[in-house]
Amino acid sequence: MSLSSNKPDMLKQLLHGDYPDARGRYGAFGGRYVPETLVPALDRLESGVRRHLHADDFQAELMAELRDWVGRPTALTPAPTLGRRWGAQVWLKREDLAHTGAHKINNAIGQALLARRLGARRIVAETGAGQHGVASAAACARLGLPCTVYMGAIDIERQAPNVDRMKLLGATVVPVTSGDRTLRAAIDEALRDWVSDPDGTYYLLGSAVGPHPYPYLVRELQSVIGREARTQMLERAGALPDLVAACVGGGSNAIGMFHPFVADAAVQILGVEAGGRGAGLGENSATLSYGRPGVLHGSYSMLLQDAHGQVQETHSVSAGLDYPGIGPEHSLLHDSGRVRYESATDEEVLDALAECCAAEGILPALESAHAFVGARRWAQANPGKRILVCLSGRGDKDMPTLQRLLVPSSPERAT
Amino acid sequence: MSTSNNPITTAIRRATAAGRPALVAYLTAGFPSRQHFREHLLAIATEAEVVEIGVPFTDPMADGVTIQRASRAALEAGVTLEWIFSELENLQPKPAAALLIMSYLNPLLAFGLERLPEAAARAGISGFIVPDLPNEESGEMRPALSAKGLTLVQMVTPVTPEARLKTLCVAAEGFVYAVTSTGITGKNFGATEETIAYLERVRAAATVPVCAGFGIRSREQVDRLKSHVDGVIVGSALVEVLERGEDPAAFLKSLWA
After folding, report:
1. Which residues of B are known to be catalytic?
2. Which of B206, B169, B180, B233 is nearest to B22 (CA)?
3. pLDDT-derived band of residue A36, with 50, 70 and 90 as boundaries?
4. Do B58 and A179 touch (CB under 8 A)?
5. What share of chain B is helix, strand, coil (3-state, %, to 5)?
6. Residue A211 falls within a domain, yes or no?
7. Distance (Å, rounded) from C-alpha B248 to C-alpha A75?
8. Domain boundary among A183, A218, A253
9. Which of A320, A368, A399, B52 has the most CB within a 10 Å radius?
10. Do A246 and A332 reside in the same domain of the chain?
11. Chain mean position to CA A135
12. A150, A261: one domain
C-alpha cells in the first residue's frame, strides 16, 4: 500500500504501456477491493473484456455505432476569439457534439454492446450530472436492454432536465437519499444493486474508477477522443498540440483524451479538478490537490478523507466532478509527473463558461469549463502555443444552476 | 495453518460441543450510544461465542439500510477505531467471547497497517473481517495480522465458483463466513434447498467451523440451518434490537434456546 517513489522507472513503464498490470494495478494504485460476491462477476467481466474488446467483430460493431448513432468523429473546432484573448492557438475537441451531448456515450454504447455479448439481462448505472445516466439509458434503449439508473437526490434537483430525458429513454431512475446524496452515494447504491444479482445484472460504470477491469475498460472506450483529436491536430494544425487540457472528476474524458498523448514527450498534459469554494475540507472535489491514498468503490487511489479514513463530503458547482475519489491511472500519471493537475474554483469556472459562450457561441458543461480555466492559465504563462481543450459536454443540462448563478450578470461577466 | 488453538475456533467449538449452534453477533460500535457500548458488548458476549465489533464507515457498500443507519449515527457521535480500541482496553470484566473487528478497508489503512495488529492485540481482539478485501488483495494484511496471532476471516458466497470455494475454504482461519445469499446485509432470506446444499459444500471443503450470515433474524431460520453449519451470524436484527432499547442477550437466547 505504499506509494512507489521510483519515478523514472514508473514513467518508463507508463510509456511502455505496462499499466494496468495483471492484477489491475497502475503502479501502487488500482486493484480490486470488492465484496467476495462480486469477485466472480469481475472475473467474468475481465475475461469478457479480454475476449471481445479488441476482437475485430466487436470493434467493427462498436465503430459502426460510434459513426452512425453517436456521430463520430466529433469535430475539432478552432477557437480564434478565445485564442486572441488568451494569446494562443486554441482548438476544441467537441465531445459536446456527440449524441446525448457528452463524451459519456462513447463508454456507454461500448459497455452496453459488451454487456449484451456477455448475456446480461439488465443494466444498472450511476450518474452524477446525469450525462452518464442519459448515455446509458440511450444505449440500453438502442440495444433493447432494461436500464436502472441511480442518482443522488441533490443531483436530481440540480440536473432536472436530464432526469426527464432518462425517463423518456425508458430508464428507471432511482433517487438515492442515503449517504451524501450525490454521485458517491449513487455508486454505493449501484454496487448494492449489483451485489444482489451479480450473475444477471451488468454494472455499467461511467467513470474511469472502480475495481479492475473498469478503469481499463473505460479508458479503452474513451481513448477514441484522444485518437481522433491527435489525428485531427496533425491534419488541421499540422502539428501536435503543446498542451492538452481536460477536466477531471473520476477522470473518464481526461483519461480518454490523455492516453493517446502520453507517449508524445513534447506534449504537456494538464488535468483540472474542481476547486469548488476553496481549500477547506468539504469545500472542493480536488482529490489530487488535497487527498491521500485510500480505498473507495473498489480501488486504491487518491481520496478525499479525514484522518480516520472516513470519506469526505465534497463540493463542486458541477455535479459531474463532485466526487471524492479519482481513477487510479490519474493517481499514477500524477505521481509519475507525466500529467500536471491543478484545480479551478467555482467562480473561475463560471467566468470561463461565460467567456466561451460569448467568444465562440458554444455553451460548455460546467465540468468542461474547468478545462478552459486551466488552459487559459497555462496560455497566459506560455504565450503563443497550440492548445487542445477537451470540451467534454454541452451545458444545456446546467441551465437550472446557470439561471441561478450566472444569467442575471452574464453580459458583464462575458465582456 | 494450525487452527486448534485459535480462540475464535475454540469459542465456536465450545458451543457445538454443547450441542447447539454457535452465535456470532454483530454490533456497530457506539450505536445507539457511545455511553452504552461496553455494557451492550458485555451483555451480548454472555450469549454469543464470537462478537463482531463494527467500525462505522461512510460508504458501507455491502450493508443494507440498518447498518448504514447505525454507521452514520456512530460517525456523527464521533466513533473512531482509536476510541473502540481504548474502550476495549478498559473493558471489565474481560468477556469470554472471542472479539473480532469488522471494518471496511479504508479506516484500517488510515489507522496504519504497521500499528494496527499490535493495537488490536492489546485491545483483546482475535481477528478481523474486512468485507471489501478479497483474498487476492490480502497479501499485506494477512501476514501483518498473523504476526500478532490475529486471524483474517474469509467470506464465501453462493456465487463463488466451486474451485475458488475450495481454495478459500482450505486457506480459511478462525471460521468460514458463509454468506447466505447474494446482496447486502439485513435482507431477510429463506433458507432454500439450494442454500442448504451450498452450505454443505462449504462445510465439506472447510477445515475450520462454518458460520452462516446475512439476513438471519429468527428462530425458524436458525432451526433450519443449524444441522448444516457450526454457527450463525446475526447482525442487522441485533442492531435493530439495540436500536429499540430491547435486551440483546434475551434476543440472542431466543434464537436457539
Report:
1. 52, 63
2. B233
3. very high
4. yes
5. 45, 15, 40
6. yes
7. 65
8. A218
9. A320
10. yes
11. 13
12. no
In the predicted model, what is the mean pLDDT of residues A246-266?
97
Contact status of A200 with chain B (Cβ, < 8 Å): no
B53 contacts B41 by C-beta, under 8 angstroms: yes
Number of structural domains in chain A: 2
Instruction: Say which CATH class B7-249 falls into.
Output: alpha beta
Check CB contact of A280 with chain B, cutoff 8 Å.
Answer: no
If we measure between CA atoms, which residue out of A162, A136, A182, A165 comes closest to residue A304? A182
- A321 plus A233 within the same structural domain: yes
CA–CA gap between residue B178 and residue B222 (Å, rounded): 14
- Give the confidence band of A408 by pLDDT, cuts at 50, 70, 90: low
CA separation for the pair B74, A310 (Å, rounded): 12
Across A107-130, b (16+ Cβ under 10 Å) vs e yields bbbbbbbbbbbbebebbbbbbbbb
Report the SS3 class of residue B57: coil
Neighbours of A25 (CB within 10 A): 19
Interchain CB contacts (distance < 8 Å): A and B:
113
- All three cell numbers of A286, joined, read 480536488
Q: Cell for A133?
A: 445516466
Q: What is the CATH number of the domain that holds A132?
A: 3.40.50.1100
* Domain limits for position A95: 71-102+222-414
* Band of pLDDT at residue A1, cut at 50, 70 and 90: very low
Q: What are residue A341's DSSP bridge partners? A: A271
A278 and A212 in a common domain: no
Residue A52 lies in a domain: yes
Residue of A nearest to B156 (CA): A36
- CB-based contact A309 B140, cutoff 8 Å: no
Quick one: closest CA in A to B160, which residue?
A: A40
All three cell numbers of A289, joined, read: 490537490
Query: Can you give the pTM of this predicted structure?
Result: 0.95
Length of chain A: 415
Most B CBs within 10 A among A33, A38, A182, hence the mutation to make, goes to A33
pLDDT above 70 coverage of chain A, percent: 97
Residues in CB range of A326: below 8 A, 6 or more apart: A209, A248, A249, A250, A251, A273, A287, A288, A291, A301, A302, A303
Helix (H, G, I), strand (E, B) or coil at B2: coil
Pairing of strands B154-156, A25-26: unpaired
Element (H, E) at A47: helix A39-48
Q: Provide the annotated active-site residues of A.
A: 104, 126, 392
Edge-to-edge strand ranges of the sheet holding A299-303: A25-26, A29-30, A299-303, A292-296
CA triplet A33, B65, B97: central angle to 5 degrees? 75
**Which chain A residues touch B179 with a CB distance below 8 Å?**
36-37
The pLDDT of A243-250, averaged and rounded, is: 98
The grid coordinates listed for B150 are 490475529
Residue A182 lies in a domain: yes
**Same domain for A333 and A286:** yes
